[in-house]
Amino acid sequence: MTDKPTVVLVHGFWGGAAHWSKVIVELNKRGFTSLHAVENPLTSLADDADRTRTMVRQIEGPVVLVGHSYGGAVITEAGDLPNVAALVYVAAFAPDAGESPGQITQEKPPAAFENIAPDSDGYLWVKQDKFHESFCQDLPADEALVMAVTQKAPLGSTFADTVTAPAWRAKPTWFQISTADRMIHPDNQRRMAQRMNPRATVELDTSHASLASQPTPVTDLITAAATDLTG
């Protein structure tokens, strides 16, 4: 029986649960045996929060809920469950009540904002030929190509979905800021981190895909949250 909490990983826009692959391997090496990664539909914040809550409710004991990118909005909305003991934000949105990811983005547009394009069905994509420079400029070209081709597009309307009661106002938080992020402006990340008063804030000189390009320091932050809970 491990004394470590369960870690639940929540992906963001333009990716799936497999974006966490390197962090999963690193957590496992550190003795985290209860690991889960949500596969969100990216159809609405309500749908994605429900999917995340469904997974968390199946878990006995404390949960460290980790969100990357838009996954930060999801854990903000879904993190009110009683067994969620900590929230970790990885280059993520952390909206307050009544805020949406789209609103935050418009306040300070990121460098790659123009490389996002809608299709005829209302889904938003990062242009394949711009994915590497936009999302993960510090990853090898082959890894970026796989991410670009397998990207999971959200419904455009999801950008406007607002958070109701932000869990970060009631739960301890940790925040990783990507200083070379071209998908969520680094200053937006700093502002969101500052107002939640996290127990630790880590700035990494990395792209939006810090979970893939810097999995060790990202895992360090998750481990710090788990250690804080368990002593």
From TrEMBL:
Pfam families: Abhydrolase_6
Domain (AB hydrolase-1): residue spans on this chain: 7-219
Highest taxon listed in the record's lineage: Bacteria
Entries under Gene3D superfamilies matching the protein: alpha/beta hydrolase
Transmembrane segments: none
Coiled coil (residue ranges): none
InterPro entries assigned to the protein according to its UniProt record, in alphabetical order: AB_hydrolase_1 (IPR000073), AB_hydrolase_fold (IPR029058), Sec-Metab_Biosynth_Hydrolase (IPR052897)
Name of protein: AB hydrolase-1 domain-containing protein
